Amino acid sequence: MFKTFLIKYGEIAIKGKNRHLFEDALVRQIRHALKKCDGEFNVYKEQGRIYVDCEGMYDYEETVGHLQHVFGIVGICPVMQVEDHGIEELGDSVIEFLTNVYDIDAQTFKVNTRRANKQYPIESMEVNAILGGRILDAFPNMKVDVHHPEILIHVELRESGKIFIYSKIIPGPGGMPVGTNGKAMLLLSGGIDSPVAGYMICKRGVKLDATYFHAPPYTSERAKQKVIDLAKKLTPYAGPINLHIVNFTDIQLYIYDKCPHDELTIIMRRYMMRIAEHFANETKSLALVTGESIGQVASQTMQSLAATNEVCSMPVFRPLIGFDKQEIIDVAEKIDTYETSILPFEDCCTIFVAKHPVTKPNLHIIQASEKKLSEKIDELVKTAIETTETVWVE
Ligand code: ATP
Ligand code: MG
């Protein structure tokens, strides 16, 4: 019955010349999201609105589900399309629409007609009155309420001569279309937090690239696959992600060899940030994103965060900074990354982790320890960068 979806988006935020950028990005993201659905879809802008036409067979639930992942969409309205065969037949169609969409009981309603087709022979107010009368005849228990109707029936008399009827608004995820606010580099581990951090940054319209550090043979091929799977779980929201997979083993072993073990995590994290920032610069990302939150583990105390931050000149965004673990888990469940994140594969940090890591690292001491790496570290970082594998995840 529904061949079209009208897409509602937050128009208030996008007045002026940014509007078409916002709309074009939204159209692009919708097209990308629907590529994964069965069926053929035509996504287009018309008169300051975005529509999705479903050509031929498609799965309603699946399609709505995919649209609900596209940031920038505030509401999805399933539209019944009819041809113009006069007001009598339009009345029949509205009654058919109500019968199919609602359990009609004694709801209040209002008809709201929009007459884009100025050739249409009846004024919109009169169309409202005629259709309202037909509804009251067909469903005697229903009542008109022009202020707070339970069912608001939109009838759009389109320029093309087609007529659109819709009333339901299925909520979208809100946010801004990915691609309207530049790009950021996500440090993506196999844990619970970083995919959630990526999701939250995307929600504000930021496109994502990602970097993952692994340590073969200490970390397995399956741990790496898990991170690719997590990136894939993000793509319905984020669009395609360019994932950089860095072989971190030699750097970790070298740090392990040369530096005090209670400082390993901090020093390793500082090298991760440096390398991620290198790729961020190379691929025009404007910021780094991590899944850190204050005090969650030793490497996320205020002092540790300051020590990891110090090596970057780019802003580091930590969207989970004030979240409790349970709040993070709730989002992870909502975006369906949780089950993948808890798969028990080793992480490169946990393998080299000290029993009692410093919780209040002193920056000068850390810098002094890093000096012990001066002989080989530049070469190792260079090799890690040169041997990085990039995977296009979509
Ligand atoms: P997560 O659940 O995201 O792994 P965590 O609670 O395990 O976080 P840490 O291991 O201290 O915390 O990592 C903090 C952040 O550093 C992560 O959220 C992630 O952004 C980044 N990070 C940690 N390990 C890696 C890795 N192997 N590859 C890429 N980024 C990493
Ligand atoms: Mg982790």
Descriptive notes:
This protein has 394 residues and is an alpha/beta fold. It has 14 helices and 15 strands. The protein has helices at 19-34, 60-67, 86-101, 124-138, 193-203, 221-238, 249-258, 264-282, 302-309, 325-334, 338-341, 348-351, 363-371, 377-386; strands spanning 4-9, 40-46, 49-55, 73-82, 108-115, 143-144, 151-157, 163-166, 170-171, 183-187, 207-214, 241-247, 288-289, 316-317, 389-393. Strands 1, 2, 3, 4, 5, 6, 7, 8 and 9 form a nine-stranded mixed beta sheet that branches. A six-stranded mixed beta sheet has the order 14-13-10-11-12-15. Strand 13, helix 9 (302-309) and strand 14 form a beta-alpha-beta unit. Helix 3 crosses helix 4, helix 5 (193-203) packs parallel to helix 6 and helix 8 (264-282) crosses helix 9. The longest helix has 19 residues, at 264-282. Residues 187-189, 191-194, 211-213, 272, 290-292, 296-297, 299-300, 347-349 line the site of adenosine-5'-triphosphate (ATP).
Write the layout of secondary structure elements.
Elements: E1 4-9, H1 19-34, E2 40-46, E3 49-55, H2 60-67, E4 73-82, H3 86-101, E5 108-115, H4 124-138, E6 143-144, E7 151-157, E8 163-166, E9 170-171, E10 183-187, H5 193-203, E11 207-214, H6 221-238, E12 241-247, H7 249-258, H8 264-282, E13 288-289, H9 302-309, E14 316-317, H10 325-334, H11 338-341, H12 348-351, H13 363-371, H14 377-386, E15 389-393
Parallel strand pairs: 5-6, 5-7, 10-11, 10-13, 11-12, 13-14
Antiparallel strand pairs: 1-3, 1-4, 2-3, 4-8, 4-9, 7-8, 12-15
Helix pairs in contact: 3-4, 5-6, 7-8, 8-9
The structure holds adenosine-5'-triphosphate and magnesium ion.
